[in-house]
Structure formats: structure tokens, C-alpha cells
Fold these 2 entries.
Entry 1:
Amino acid sequence: MNTLEEIISENRKYLDRGEVASYIPELKKANKNALGLYITTLNGEEYFAGDYDTKFTIQSISKIITLALAIMDNGKDYVFSKVGMEPTTEAFNSIIDLELKNLNKPLNPMINAGAIATVSMIKGKDKNEVFNRILEFTKKLCGNENLKVDESVYTSENRTGNRNRALAYFMKSTGIIEKDVEEVLYAYFKQCSIEVTCKDLSRIATVFANEGVLPWNEERVIPKEIARIVKTIMATCGMYDASGEFAVNIGLPSKSGVGGGILAVAPGKMGIGIVGPSLDKKGNSIGGVEVLKDLSEKFDLNIF
Ligand code: GLU
């Protein structure tokens, strides 16, 4: 067995200790036993192991894409006048921080409130144009023309997303969100429902590892400064309220999603995509975090 297959099989033991996300009913259908990884290096080598071809929805990992796009559309000063850059100790969908801390603006763009505020700043004449821009940009970052939305996950999120609605209406009341709330939530729920594989995540990660340039054709798609900002926010806020522990143990700018994905960036080296829908209590892939710990140690990837 090769090293990557060994890493996957050694960490399957953790899967039983977690649960698949269930607050979005459609996500309950995910395979709790899946665990896989895909690595794409900056010079185009690809390595994979385990259940790497599992499909899942990108969920919160889309927040790094919309953050890049919102800053490209509006500049960093405007975006960070409406969303903070500080980590939180509360859960990703928490309401409490919003009113109590940081002058009524969401703490950072990786929690739901901050991501909803971020997508509200993406330009477009209507919700369809805004979402199309997000989808086209995501396709470009993975070099995959076939990406599409899992409509059943979208419908499920839209039907049950009352907490996100509460966050969004609160932010509308304070002026953080200027657009129509339902238009903003349409784009947000759709962006979370884009279906991907670990390969897609690893390719998006290579673009950040390469400071905003597509490694496969040298096209610059994100300005260097913005790619750096996004990586920094990933390193400080990307793994929910476990971001500090993750930085200490693994040391890679990463973003997880409740679909079980983790995207990890090894700057100048490679992009890593993980799938493992069994989640720990904070919402991170329980097996995925262990896999990344092993990868980081074995290949000396910790950036700190
Ligand atoms: N669509 C999910 C939500 O809004 C994203 C959560 C996540 O992946 O952290 O609850």
C-alpha cells in the first residue's frame, strides 16, 4: 500500500466517532464512511487515495471564493468595513456575536453571518447574475466546466435555513446588508450547494498556493494581495471555532464545510482536497483533520 492509502486507512477509525450534518435534511444522505484525499502539486502532479471520487456539496468552503470575489469587486477597505477579520469562539451559525461584539458587524467572512454579508457585496444586476458569477469563477478556479448545483441540497437549505434568515434580516436591520435579503440568501444557499469532489478542492487550493495564478496555464485570476488576504483569513478563521488548534497541530491555511470537505493550501507547493462527511462537534471532518495532521507531519508542510 502506498503512503497516502495508508494514511487514509489508518484514520478511518475516527469516522465512527463523528456524525454527518443533519440540520440541513438533505445532508443526512452523505456517506459517513467515506474518507478520501486528492493532492495537486504546483507542477501538475496528482496523487489521490481512498474515496477521493465521492461527490459532496462545497458548503462553507465556497466562502473563500466569495470573499475573493467580493474584494475584487469592491476593494478590501469596503469589504472589511462591513465584515471583521477576527476569529470567533462561537459556532459558525451563532447569532450572539452579531449583536454583542465588533460594532454590529459580523466577526469574520468565514462564519455564516460574515459570508452572507460578503456575498451581498458581489456585483450583479440580480440574484441570477450574482450567482452565475460565483459559479463561473468557481469553475475557473478548478478548471472544471462541469460544476453544477446539487438542486436537492439547495432546496433543502432554502426550506430550512431559518437561522441564516435570522442572521441576514438582523444585518439588513443594521445596514450591513443593503440588498434584498432573499436575493442575497438565494446566492448564498446556491453557492453552498455547488457539488464538488476532492480533486476540485485541491485545484482551487493550488490557485491560492500559487498566489492567485492558475498553475496549469499561468493566468492570473486573483490579485496577489487578495489571494494573501484570503489565505490569512483561512489560517485564522477557516476551521470554525477550532481554527487555533488546527493552526497549532497542522499549520496550513484551510477551510472546511459541513458537507465534509476540507480545502488546504500548502503555499508554493500544493493544494489538498479532503472528503469525510463524518463531522466532529465543531463541524469539521473528523477523519479529514486527522488525515491532514498526518500529511502535514509526513511531508513537513506546516507553514509556521
Ligand atoms: N450552508 C451551510 C449553512 O449555511 C454552510 C455551513 C458550513 O458549511 O459551515 O449552514
Entry 2:
Amino acid sequence: MLSVNELTSLEEELSKASKKGLKIGLVPTMGALHDGHMELIKQAHLHSDYVIVSIFINPLQFNQAEDFINYPSNLLKDSNKLKNAGVDLLFNPDAKLIYPKEPAVKIDFGVISHKLEGAFRLGHFEGVGLVVMKLFNLIKPNVAFFGLKDLQQFILIKHIIKEFSYPIKLQGVITVREKNGLALSSRNAHLSPSGIKIAAQIYKGLIWAKNNFETFKSTDELKVQLNDFYKKQEGLSIEYCEVLNLNKFKPLKSLKNGKKTALCIAAYVEGVRLIDNIFLRE
Ligand code: PAF
């Protein structure tokens, strides 16, 4: 595996790959790689010929300095995992390369970027959108792979690709879970064994909602009952739970409209912020 952290070598490698007619697959990450990332890489191998993984902890998408500082990082361990997974190139730029100066241009990514994660983490999606566009511009992948655990991010990127006319195929990759249902996340590393047990209740609630959603009169009723379910779990504090139309990521009132629907949730356990979701209707 080649590891590059500057543009000249990146461009050289990209040009070699494109001369060979290889289909380039990009897996953007912030490192602290777990089996969820490995699934993205597995899909990238299946759907492209030359797999690039980027590792960049993007300061612009953290709304709290402390969260950025505490974000887990272990480049050596990550790099070994990527080598074993047969990745062709690791792009590991530093912040100066991505943001040589404070960005003079700010892009507002619209209504999707302002709700849920965007409302609770102000500026988050401006940072995500900007860095993803930069990675798309630098790497020009044919296919890009993003996890569906970050469903709002995935839907926003789908719109960015369409509206900014990127010739990139977007591939969503299923959420990988622990045996107890907890969605894999780099943040799980901050949880104690008992915190992990509590956090596993998040998915239990989502499954319960999916199994029962036909019986609710409205999304409000579903949310009230789901919150009651979670209130019984000591140590779990729900930040939001929302039922949304999958295409436009618009909150839904009625469950009877036949639209593709997802239930998204954010919660805190031991001060760690966790997100998850489930498709109620696909
Ligand atoms: O999902 C992530 O890990 C990040 O938001 C991403 C897409 C790599 C952008 O920094």
C-alpha cells in the first residue's frame, strides 16, 4: 500500500491508475478504523479497481474543540489494517494541505444540513460538505463509499453529488453492529463495559419501533412511546429521535403515506454522543 500525504505524489498515483483505466473507489474516513470501515473497504474492492482510503480528522466538522482533541487517532494501527485489507493508497493529508488558510468561502448546504445533527452540532455539515467536496476534487473518484449509520450525512452527500454535478457514484454501506446491536463507531472506544451495555439499548429501541410502527397512529405517538421505552434505561439520555422521509430528509407526521421512512436517533451514554437509525420502510 502506498501512503501519501502531499498532492504531487497523489496526482502521480491517480494519473497512473487512470492511464490503466482503473475505476477509483474512495473511502473517506477520520481514522480510528473499526469493522464498519472495513465493510466500506470490502464494498470498495467489490465495486472498484483501485481503492483509496483517506484519513483526515477534519477540524471544521467538530462544533466542540474538546470533541476534536479527544477524537481517537492511531495512524500506525490504521495503516496496518489498511495494508491487510489490500487498500491501494492511503491519503493522509495534514490540516495545512486541506485548509492552507481559513476558508474565505462558506457554503450553506441547505435545509438538510440544518436539522437534527446540523441543529445540535452547529456548523457540522458545513465542515463535512466542504471536506468531502475537497476530497472529491483532489481524488476524482468514480465511486465513493459512505456508511449508512451517518444517514443524514449520506443523504446530504447524495444531494451534493447531484447538485454540484460530480460524476461520482455514491454507494451507501450498511451499518456494522456488535453482537448486542450497538452500531460500531470510533466513539465507542470511550465507553466502559457497562456503558456499552446501556448503549446497546439504543438499537433495541429502534428494533422495537420498527416491529410496532404499523400500530402507531402518528409519528408523534411513536416518538412518545419510544422515549418512554428509553426512559426506563438508566444512563441513556436521548437528544433527539425523529421519523423522516428518506429522500428529502423531511420529518414525517403520518406513518401511512407509503414513503421511504427512517427513524434517526442521537443519544448520550457516559458523556459519549452516539447516533443510529433504522429504516422503517425501504
Ligand atoms: O463520516 C466520516 O468519517 C466523516 O464525516 C467524513 C465523511 C470522513 C468527512 O470528514
